[in-house]
Design a protein that fits this description.
By secondary structure, the protein is of the alpha/beta class. The chain has a single domain, classed as Alpha-Beta Complex (Spore Coat Polysaccharide Biosynthesis Protein SpsA, Chain A). The chain contains ten helices and 13 strands. Strands 8-11-9-10-12 form a five-stranded mixed β-barrel. Strands 2-3 form a two-stranded antiparallel sheet. A hairpin with a 2-residue loop joins strand 2 and strand 3. The longest helix has 15 residues. It binds uridine 5'-triphosphate.
Length: 287
Amino acid sequence: MKIRKVVLPVAGWGTRSLPASKVIPKEMLPVYNKPVIQYVVEEAVRAGVSEVVFVTNRHKSVVEDHFDRNIELEDMLARAGKFDYLKAVQEAGSMVEVMAVRQKEQLGLGHAVGCAATLVQEDFFAVMVGDDFIVGDDAGLVQLVQAVEKYNKPAIGVMEVPADKIDKYGMVAGEEIEEGVFRISDMVEKPAVGSFDSRLAIVGRYVLPRDIFRYISCVKPGKGGEIQLTDAMRDYMLEKGMLAVKMKGRRFDAGDWVDYLSAGIYFGLKDEKLAGPLREAVAKLIG
Ligand code: UTP
């Protein structure tokens, strides 16, 4: 099964990233030489996605602009013979078809996904959280697409977290039906430490059925007074079943400063021109 479309909510406040995110959306903060959101969209493209629906607000239109062409800039770079930069700029402007819809009030992740309902006609579509990114060629959304293809059931990306961190995540429990694939039996948003047995945390990757919009429109405000996607998925799961897939690869949460700073170093070290001097500079700082 091909998943063509991803809904990408980027309308949150980004409070944990303040003051950096006061004017610049946290999804646009750079990790080495690209904004966070580009890594997320690249992961979607690796999974076969070609259309992105950004759920934005009135301060976030730069997110769409990043994936549009910038003809004046391209002309200048071509005239100046700066072809490496030209290629990078053109790549960002041509990787996906972009659509956008506004979330007029920040009422939660479930509500944000619900705002995209009229733009999704496909039986299954992906949802990715715009500040969470997973690296590794066969890791992330592509694993969910494979699971949905095999079992014809919606699937959620999960990773194991320490028992004392479960109150930071949507958590799922279930029976393992194949290595790393679980039939979900329970799902709770940010349970209190000690109140939920499983350590499988939801990490911002989903392949959902279009029917989920009906469930979202029925859920009442949950944890933190927000319309929670986890609550809508739980209702769906209890009636029709859902899978969780353990994500391979490495995950960075751009809203967490340790992860964000580590991601910059991780991608800097991947660039062979930068790796040597960067390693020396970091060693000096640590020393
Ligand atoms: P987060 O809770 O991680 O993002 O929501 P946040 O609210 O922006 O950040 P903090 O916690 O205040 O630092 C997960 C994703 O859901 C989006 C966010 O933009 C983020 O990508 N979101 C959240 C919305 O689009 N709308 C909302 O009402 C809430």
